[in-house]
Amino acid sequence: MPMKLTMKDPYSKTRILSPKIRGYIDLLRPFTLMAPIFVSLFIMLASFVYNDAYLAEDFDPWRDAIVMMQASLTLALLNAASNALNQATDIESDTISKPYRPIPRGIVQPDEAQSLAFIFYLFVLLRAVTINEWFGIFVFFIMIFTVTYSLPPRIKKYLFLNQVWIALPRGLFGVLASWSVFGNPFDSEPLIIGLIAFVFFVGSMTSKDIVDRFADKQTGTRTLINTYGLKKASFISFPFLIGPFISIPLLINYNLLKSYLWPLILFILPSFLVFYLMLTHEESKSLENVKAWVLMYVEYLVFAITFTTLIIAGELGLFL
Fold it and tell me: Could you give the CA distance from residue 284 to residue 294 in angstroms, rounded to a whole number?
């Protein structure tokens, strides 16, 4: 029998994975883990070059590469823990809007998902503090935000605050944690890039609520979408999508960003497309949300790659 490849495919017994094992995998939402894995790796690489770590007397490329991979995996598992906890506490709304998920289908029980989440949280925290002090602190802050988003006081149900509660750990804290592996997280570049990511996520995370708009309203969760309607919520989010990229020339002018980072302004273009796709709210046939949500993750990944490429080229003097 064919293997279950996407979240929306039916659960069936195969020679490779049982429905139960596949249910646990779906709890982690593998697609959403690509961003923390690769974004963090690229931010760490940017920090590595920016802070001249390769010029240190004790420079060991294999050791540093292993540290990068361990830190990246730690952030990915932290996101996985958050995904599992969110599904464990969202069974009522998921039954309405996302019945294909493993808990509504009865493949995994809510208490199993919550136990898995806290096992991951414990492992992540113990692993994070071995990277360095600041990395451990930022990981702890991310944990607090993700836990309180789903569990009491359950910030998810509060209008506006729920947007910020997701954007801070995924944007600002994620960038600062990654940068701290090799550098000072309070340097101008990581702080500004983290704030840009934070503002972008405040706007783009509206896309994740489109599919859940009816279920959220029935279960007492207020979002921009179910409070103001799809069109008005999209226009409210629009300044957050393009504002951080429009501000880049001004930030460069005030020496808050390096001048070679000006091409980042071009991310206005995919942000416009995210906005357009939010208005059309076309749902992905294979992934579990709308196309605007998918593009948002892709844009953030390409943004991190571009930022790192510019840092490497700029710091090594490759620009004419």
Answer: 8
The pLDDT of residue 1 is above 50:
no
Q: Residues 218-246: what's their mean pLDDT?
A: 96
pTM of the model: 0.94
Span 230-244, average pLDDT = 96
Q: CA–CA separation, 96 vs 221, rounded Å? A: 13
Predicted confidence at residue 281, as pLDDT, reads 82
212 vs 235: CA distance, rounded Å: 19
Please state, in angstroms and rounded to a whole number, the distance separating the CA atoms of residues 204 and 194.
15
Dmax over CA atoms of the chain, in Å, equals 60
pLDDT at 153 over 90: yes
User: Which whole-number Å values give the CA distances from 115 to 32, 135, 143, in the listed order?
Assistant: 20, 25, 15
Q: Are 313 and 47 in contact (CB under 8 A)?
A: no
Would you say residue 95 has pLDDT above 90?
A: yes
DSSP single-letter state for residue 156:
G
Domains of the chain and CATH, by start = 21-315 (1.10.600)
Q: Which residues are registered as beta bridge partners of 290?
A: 283
Nearest C-alpha neighbor of 128 from the set 120, 100, 288:
120
Tokens encoding 110? 């809510």
Spatial contact of 281 and 210, defined as CB atoms under 8 Å apart = yes
**What is the spatial distance between Cα 198 and Cα 104, in angstroms, rounded to a whole number?**
32
- Is there a contact between 212 and 97 (Cβ–Cβ < 8 Å)? yes
| Whole-number Å distance between alpha carbons of 115 and 96 | 24
Tell me what the pLDDT averaged over the chain comes to.
93
Q: What is the C-alpha separation between 263 and 310, in angstroms, rounded? A: 8
